[in-house]
Amino acid sequence: MRFIILTLFPGMFTGFINESIIGRARDTGLITVDLVNIRDFARDRRQVADDYPFGGGAGMVMKPEPVAEAIESTYRAGERPYVVLTSAQGRVFDQSVAQEYARHESIAVVCGHYEGVDERVSAFVDDQICIGDYILTGGEIAALAVLDATSRLVPGVISEESSKNESFQAGILEGPQYTRPREFRGLEVPEVLLSGDHEKVRVWRRKEALRRTLVSRPDLLWRAALTAEDMKLLKEIKGRP
Q: Out of 3.40.50.300, 3.40.1280.10, 3.40.30.10, 3.40.1190.20, which CATH number does the structure's domain 2-158 have?
């Protein structure tokens, strides 16, 4: 899968895309990540990509020409990437959106900055996303979130089993995880995980995942595809003091 990040600050991405899962996926050719510097498409000698807003107001606005031309530079013969703009007015980026993006052959993420992007750029994008109700300096962190969450869904980037059991992938949070040592400062690993009974372990993990979701993110349960077993486990959880 091809990812293209369009940004005023490509240096913010170089460390991230060369490390961990993203770095390995690039090394093995499962994904490609291209960085496009929007300033390269500015029309003046100083590569100015922003200007004062018409009508007055604080801050600067990204100019339409360099952004639109940067987007157009990502087009290839017979292939136009799905173009996403990071914006406070966009829909909230979550796991379902990541799954939607992973179905595309290529994704181009345009990083907004300053007070935003000239509204006319919206004619060149397919979607707008926001990662939360807080203010960031620019869209680079949001673009990293899109890259990370979406790339994990590309076949082969992580194991199918890991992907299947992660938080949000199944609509609820993942349950607690334990590793060695068996005892740490008086805190023991739950006995069921040491029992060797795979069915008991499966049920315990599902129950604890439901418990954690009920306590921390009950809103997720309304949208999750719960089974009859899940409903039974939730009744047991709620029945406890």
A: 3.40.1280.10
